[in-house]
Amino acid sequence: MIITSDPEALTGLISKRFTIYDNDENIQPNAQFGSLVEGSSISGTTNVANGDDTAVARIIFRPSGAIDVEFSDGNIVDTDSRGDWVDDTGGSFDPSLFKITATIVADNGTQLVPENGSYGTALNLGSTQTFSITTTEPSSSPSIYYATREISFTIQEIGNEVANSVTLNSFTLQVTTSYFDGAVD
To answer: Omega of the bond prior to 142 within 30 degrees of 0, cis?
Structure first.
């Protein structure tokens, strides 16, 4: 083989084009966690005396590839985009070829409403997957209820779990519901 940039050096030689095949080519995008990093969290506080009800924090993985976090106080939902769970949502992207597994690392708090989301089970990302925590509404003033859930997430391409897999070991949902009506005992 001769490698040169001088076309005259190739006089009298026969050339033939060829393609080098890349057999590990993967047309699916790579799994990722957008702007989420280890130790990321969403938290919020509500006050029942202000007309709020319960407090809810959610992380949502959408089939579009988007990751959203939400906080709701029973009246208003505040949504924040945290990027995409894949590095390319165009062309050949098929969310049903990916799965997510969430694991509860730790729960803490008072009045933690039973879990929302399937934990320990691989869920297909071809449909929206939501994980949330909720606190109940305090019934008397002064009261504070809080809940914290730390979650580990793994996103994998189905059938290519070893090569296309990412894990976020620590993401925390935290909510506080308080009831302070301003009355002095």
So the answer is: yes
Q: What is the DSSP letter of 157?
A: E
E strands of the chain, at which residues?
40-47, 55-61, 66-72, 77-84, 98-109, 122-124, 129-135, 143-157, 165-179
Please state, in angstroms and as integers, the Cα–Cα distance from residue 88 to each residue in 25, 29, 156, following that order: 15, 5, 15
Taking Cα atoms as reference points, which of 87, 85, 67 lies closest to residue 27? Answer: 87
Distance (Å, rounded) from C-alpha 129 to C-alpha 108? Answer: 23
Locate all alpha helices (DSSP H) within 2-159, ordered by sequence.
none
Query: Rounded distance, CA 49 to CA 138, Å?
Result: 10
Smallest Cα–Cα separation from 41: which of 160, 147, 120?
147
65 vs 62: CA distance, rounded Å: 6
> What are the residue ranges spanned by the domains of the chain?
31-179
Taking only the tens place, the pLDDT of each residue in 103-126 is 989 888 776 666 667 889 999 999
Q: Model's pTM, two decimal places? A: 0.77
